[in-house]
Amino acid sequence: MTWPEPSSALGWVVLVVELALRVVALGVIPGNRKPSTGMAWLLLIMVEPLIGFAIFLLFGRTRIGGRRITRQRVAVDTIRRRVAAHDLSFDTSALPPTLAGVADLNRTLGALPMTGGNEVQLLADYRTVIAEMAAEVDRARSHVHVEFYIVAWDEVTDPLFAALQRAAERGVDVRLLFDHLGTRRIRGYHRTLRRLRDSGIEWHPMLPIDPLRGRFRRPDLRNHRKILVVDGAVGFTGSLNLIEPGYHHPRNHRIGREWVELMVRLEGPVVTGLNAVFASDWYVETGETVDLVAVHGEPDTREDEELDVPCQVVPSGPGIVAENNLRMFTTLIYAATRRVSLTSPYFVPDESLLYAVTTAARRGLEVELFVSEVSDQVMVGHAQASYYRALLEAGVRIHLYPAPFVLHSKHFTIDDDVAVVGSSNMDMRSFGLNFEVTLMLPAPAVVARMRQVEDRYRALSRELTLSEWDRRPARTRYLDNVMRLTAALQ
């Protein structure tokens, strides 16, 4: 920075203010933060006190606003009461002790219990997912609840939005939530809004920023959940956003880049949990309560569905007990005895997750990580790459899904016992800043189906070796480490 002349009055004022900010930061920044995060913020402020402190005030706190926090607490308390009244719980004593403990932890922190008697289907084809959701909406009789991080009404998603419009026209309550900034940055945003206004669908942006109306908060908080519920009886969740697989980006279309996803179709009591998460977000954004009564039709038995599966919905995000998705992830990885298979488009772990994964590998377990060969986000891609050496040295096998595709699905399996799938990446943002929703499925039959998905990934991918990684240029390693530091500024 350019320093004023020390002899001037302004120069002395700046020096005193910067010194004061450094002293204040030492006693304030580390409070209730991980050491790595605190050190990253302190380094920034020590180098540039005025700019660093301004950035900290804008991005350093995860407060979501007093009214929003109050509504969120009311929603969670309501969910707990309704769950208790309907006795949806699954007898977790039938599970191995470790999994029973994780289920109890999830319920304590996230309010929702493990439920039994569910039907589960994995859906990996992008357009098939859209078609399946549209078909369910066309069967809706009472309500359709839709909540996605990114929403775009385009040629790929039109079958679903057309079904939502038809449902609204025949008197079904159709409610739609989407993340304000996540959706706003997509090409065609205003065209989507115009079509929604004419559709009869009731819609609201989540976490809106509008300073002129007093709506302001940390600008990088996101509601990253993906949920669709029809009549409280059929639900979908996973990694897919409601947008064509090239995300309306001309370069993606030019090079053939598309997002690869995994969604889950659900029937049974677990759908009530997904509906409860939607209802809590709807209440937080609008102040309105919604009816969660399930309307059951004819049973839909399919050959590729797993029946009688125990499932647990795990909502997470700011305002919920700190990083409960991370606590579930690390506990399950430490409990593994044979195999851990991880899939995440953005693998930027904190110390606890990194230690859990590398410790599993050093214990002699088979540990593998599926990631994209080329990340769609440059900064995140470099931050992720900074962890590859530690993983490879520990014995983790890293499979690079081929470019130009983006492996966007988010799931992992532990031994043959439990699968976890949802919207949460394995990065600091998904643990500390994003509202996410995750499913824990302690069912060997579902794990077997997930293994088939992992096998397809492995067949398409190439394995990264430590010798290959060591041949990278020094400038690339330098950039990786810089981006790793920025990832901790939360």
TrEMBL record:
<feature type="domain" description="PLD phosphodiesterase">
    <location>
        <begin position="403"/>
        <end position="430"/>
    </location>
</feature>
<keyword id="KW-1133">Transmembrane helix</keyword>
<keyword id="KW-0812">Transmembrane</keyword>
<keyword id="KW-0677">Repeat</keyword>
<feature type="domain" description="PLD phosphodiesterase">
    <location>
        <begin position="219"/>
        <end position="246"/>
    </location>
</feature>
<keyword id="KW-1003">Cell membrane</keyword>
<keyword id="KW-0443">Lipid metabolism</keyword>
<feature type="transmembrane region" description="Helical">
    <location>
        <begin position="9"/>
        <end position="29"/>
    </location>
</feature>
<keyword id="KW-0594">Phospholipid biosynthesis</keyword>
<dbReference type="InterPro" id="IPR001736">
    <property type="entry name" value="PLipase_D/transphosphatidylase"/>
</dbReference>
<dbReference type="InterPro" id="IPR025202">
    <property type="entry name" value="PLD-like_dom"/>
</dbReference>
<keyword id="KW-0808">Transferase</keyword>
<dbReference type="InterPro" id="IPR027379">
    <property type="entry name" value="CLS_N"/>
</dbReference>
<dbReference type="GO" id="GO:0032049">
    <property type="term" value="P:cardiolipin biosynthetic process"/>
</dbReference>
<keyword id="KW-1208">Phospholipid metabolism</keyword>
<protein>
    <recommendedName>
        <fullName>Cardiolipin synthase</fullName>
        <ecNumber>2.7.8.-</ecNumber>
    </recommendedName>
</protein>
<keyword id="KW-0444">Lipid biosynthesis</keyword>
<keyword id="KW-0472">Membrane</keyword>
<dbReference type="GO" id="GO:0005886">
    <property type="term" value="C:plasma membrane"/>
</dbReference>
<feature type="transmembrane region" description="Helical">
    <location>
        <begin position="41"/>
        <end position="59"/>
    </location>
</feature>
<dbReference type="Pfam" id="PF13091">
    <property type="entry name" value="PLDc_2"/>
</dbReference>
<dbReference type="GO" id="GO:0008808">
    <property type="term" value="F:cardiolipin synthase activity"/>
</dbReference>
<dbReference type="InterPro" id="IPR022924">
    <property type="entry name" value="Cardiolipin_synthase"/>
</dbReference>
<dbReference type="Pfam" id="PF13396">
    <property type="entry name" value="PLDc_N"/>
</dbReference>
